[in-house]
Design a protein that fits this description.
Helix content is about 65%, strand content about 0%. By secondary structure, it is an all-alpha fold. It has three domains: about 70 residues, no CATH class; about 80 residues, Orthogonal Bundle (Annexin V, domain 1); about 130 residues, Flagellar motor switch protein FliG, alpha-alpha superhelical domain (Annexin V, domain 1). Helix 1 crosses helix 4, helix 5 packs across helix 7 and helix 14 packs across helix 17. The protein is rod-shaped.
Amino acid sequence: MQVADLTGLDKAAILFQVLGDGLAVTIFKELSDTDMRKVRVRARELEMVSFKVKKTVLEEFYFSFLAQKYKETESGGRKPFAFLEKLSDEQVAYLILAEPPRIAGIVLAQLKPDRQMRIYERLDPEQRVEALVELGDAETMNLESVVSVAGDLQEKARYLPKASEFERGGGEKLAGMLNRMGLEQADLFLDKLSQENPDLLAEVKKFYLTFDDIFKVDETALRDILISVELDDLALALKGMDESLVEQAINVLPKKKQAMYEPVEGTVSKRDVNDARRKIMEQVRKLQDDGQINIADTLSGEMVE
């Protein structure tokens, strides 16, 4: 006899056999006298029911009983996974990152669809696939285990760092790294970023200027930048630039400096030009640190790559 072949009456009769008449009558108190007689008769008819079948039927009854209690708990506003609602997406992802895919799948099953995707995308690629499979199978896990998982995770969540307790990345942090790179390396990275993540590029641009970008700030900011650098460095940095940008740079200088400016003639190495531009960008960052210019505020309109 297999569990899959049992009818509802068969299962009730087996429970009657396992629990005994006194306890079974209490559990089946909502049954009519007629139905109770049917259960008793069927219990006498069933013979040689294996221990495995009896155990499975008893577990099914037990977990259905737990399920009812679980629903009652939810209706009273006490949901086992309610603590997830108080966590940020980042915290939830961090919480399940080291957990087995089975646990990740259970947690994802508790979330609303839009939040599911946001947290799912934070998982490691390999964990994503396995968690997705487990998400599909999560409903087959018995309720007692699910509630146990919720309790364990809630305890672990108590020790999660708060958003203010750890450094984030983001545009400002990335800009800081770019400031420490060579100009060519930074330009290559920004070019790649413009193709792969334009939104992040826009965020970085609030905190980082390339040499070309200083010609996109307003005239006052450009004047503050250029009068703070040596004319020889400026002339070398402007080597190879479009003539209109060279004129723009010279025109914002005071008349005395304009008269002293001499363009670099002949061929010069790219390294020398980059070194001169690096000096100017270092001065830009110094002005920013001193509060004399604000990169986010000085850009004149939306920049086009």
